Amino acid sequence: MSDANLTATTRSADLDGKTRDRRAFDRSFGQQWLRKLALPIALVALLAGFALADDRILTSYNLLNIAQQTSYLALFAMAQMVVILTRGFDLSLGPTVSMVSVGAALAMAGMGGGEAGGLVVVTAALAAGLALAVACGLFNGVVVALLGVSPLVATLGSMNIAIGVATTISDGRPVQGVPSAFSQVFYTGSLLGLPIAIVIALVVGVALAFVLSRTVFGRSLYIIGTNPQAAAVAGIPVKRLLVYAYLLCSALAALGALMMTARTGSGEPNLGGTLSLQSIAAAVVGGTSLAGGRGGVATAVLGALFITILSNGMNLTRIDGYVQMIVLGAIVILGVVLDRLRLSAR
């Protein structure tokens, strides 16, 4: 073969290789954008579908209601997302909410309720709620990280403990006596025209996004979730950070519990309800991977918005509550299946 032919053949091979690389890049780029836009498109489609069934869903009152409801679930989804990043999850989140609600209400009642100063009441509620949440988060973190128990078993056990504590200290009844000062701080107040619940969720979301993306602690959680063995070899204190992750999860759950207590006006031993499942569903549907190492604040918030719109739409169209539970469970399974498909396609 002459030098000219050899050069032409080489150039042709280089062009073919570059074309294949370009096509592979285009496919990968397109798939990335498709994954990013899938949930926003689904949100619009869901909203439009329910609007066709009942136009009340698009009223300004209902949209504001959706935004407020999303702010609560977003806090719990962000809490769940933190531990899911590390290949765990927290089944005790819902009962922790109930326990914090009852404990904070009892603390405020013990301080004299409305007779005590507003700052004193709020401080008592915060102290009692955070103390209970820290105890639960520390228990989960120690059992998972130091004793090596799976998150499923550990948080299943603490879930039952929290249910027992909430029911015992409240005698199974709502705890009355939540003063107006507490409700003003966590529910009825507003800032710049926005309901305080939305403001709190925004502030927490921005702060958590900064922690996860700009701090050693946050970046380490992603590394632990991606490969815990490699993280340990790299010198990352895996066990200690796992404990911190469960503490942060419980602290965020406590904040959401205080907000919901202010909304209901009493400490409710059943306030957590299905929040454990809803928070996991919101995180997973939003794109947080149960395999660990992938997710963020945006995924948790979008997932919470999806679950809230779905619940709101089903309520307006009068779909039975038990059917709603079936739908929610199916969404969790679907989210896990899609996550597995994404991982296998990588």
List the helices and strands and how they pair.
Layout: H1 3-53, H2 60-84, H3 93-110, H4 118-146, H5 151-170, H6 180-188, E1 190-191, E2 194-195, H7 196-214, H8 216-226, H9 228-233, H10 238-264, H11 275-286, H12 297-316, H13 321-345
Antiparallel strand pairs: 1-2
Q: Overall mean pLDDT score?
A: 85
Residue share in β-strands: under 5%
Strand order of the largest sheet: 1-2
Distance between the termini: 41 Å
Globular, elongated, flat, extended or rod-shaped: what is the shape? globular
Domains, number:
1
**Structural class, judged by helices and strands?**
mainly alpha
Please compute the radius of gyration using only Cα atoms.
24 Å
CATH class: Mainly Alpha
Subcellular location: Cell membrane
Organism: Jiella avicenniae
Pfam families: BPD_transp_2
GO molecular function: transmembrane transporter activity
Descriptive overview:
With 346 residues, the protein is mainly alpha-helical. It has a single domain (42-345), classed as ABC transporter involved in vitamin B12 uptake, BtuC (Orthogonal Bundle), CATH 1.10.3470. The chain contains 13 helices and two strands, in the order ααααααββααααααα. It has a two-stranded antiparallel ribbon. This is ABC transporter permease. One of its GO terms (molecular function) is transmembrane transporter activity. Its main location: membrane. It is a multi-pass membrane protein.
